[in-house]
Amino acid sequence: MWTGVLSFGLVSVPVGLYTATSPHTLRFHQLQRGTSDRIRNRRVNERTGEEVELDDIVKGFDTGDTYVLVEPDELDDIAPGRSKALEIDGFVDLDAIDPIFFDRTYYLGPKGTEYAKVYALLERALAKTGRAGIATFVMRGREYLVALKSENGILTLHTLHWADEIRDPREEIPDLPTTRTKTGDKEMRMAEQLIGTLAMDWDPEEFHDTYRDKVAALITAKESGESVEKAEPAAEATNVIDLTEALRASVERARGRSGRSGSERSRGAGEGDEEGTGREGAGSEGKDEGGRDGSAKPKAAKPKATKPKAAKGKGGKAEGGKAEGGKRAGDTAGLQDLSKAELYEKASAAGIRGRSGMNRDELIEALTAEGGARAA
Whole-model pTM? Predict the structure, then answer.
């Protein structure tokens, strides 16, 4: 995107600037409704209605009474350093830069293997000191404030917002809480507990653009004349009166209770014991998972176990036999009754990786498999 000279002190190295990110937004064309005719944007003289060639267009600044005309070459002539120098003004602690200042990220690389040593020296020095180089330079007709950082063995350049571009939140947001806004101690403890329960390791691979996937699915469905499932409605705002109860329910759900506490699981295991003897194959599974998780396979029968034929008998043994055959279907049916949001929360509590990109059926399949693995 840009080539120039990076300098710090009396040391300099030719570098190139490279794009670090690639947006994956789906692009739509504008069409006239009812046709396949593209809509084009043209440069038109608003007085004559005639199209104007790009070479005949100049920039004009509106002063209120008239326009001050500026040629593109005139802007290049006044660009500091003719846009070819990236000189470090100084080095600051990375923690000193508020995240709100960061805008876009670029890769910076040496222009030639003979400059690899100088490049590596600066990169490693920045990594060791935990500092970032601050500089300004001009690229494509605009001056940028930038921070030069070391990241994973390479130099990265982060464009920063200018200080006067940062808006004051107190002026922009009318209903922000004040220092006099009171929060209860109990509510604060529960909120901290909820945050601790939902603590996770940062793994960007776990997340991806699900909305883009839905847009792609919508296009595919419309192309084949099918319909698509609508998104879940947005959650309603929590009433202040119900805040404590909402926090309590959130903590319980985040703990991965899956609708049942540990004591309920224990009771479930006891109930499985009473349901029938001859359960070394099916009943022992109920003992492990409270008679809920039907995705696990029965354990191998021990010598003292009742033969499988006994499961077809009458009475308690018949019910015990049915438990094994109906567990998987019963659990799946139970999951089918849940919304996608509820399924996702169960998957989150179970630590299922890649859950953010799963549809409803995939979440059910993953939860069923996860339950089977735990039982095994």
Answer: 0.55
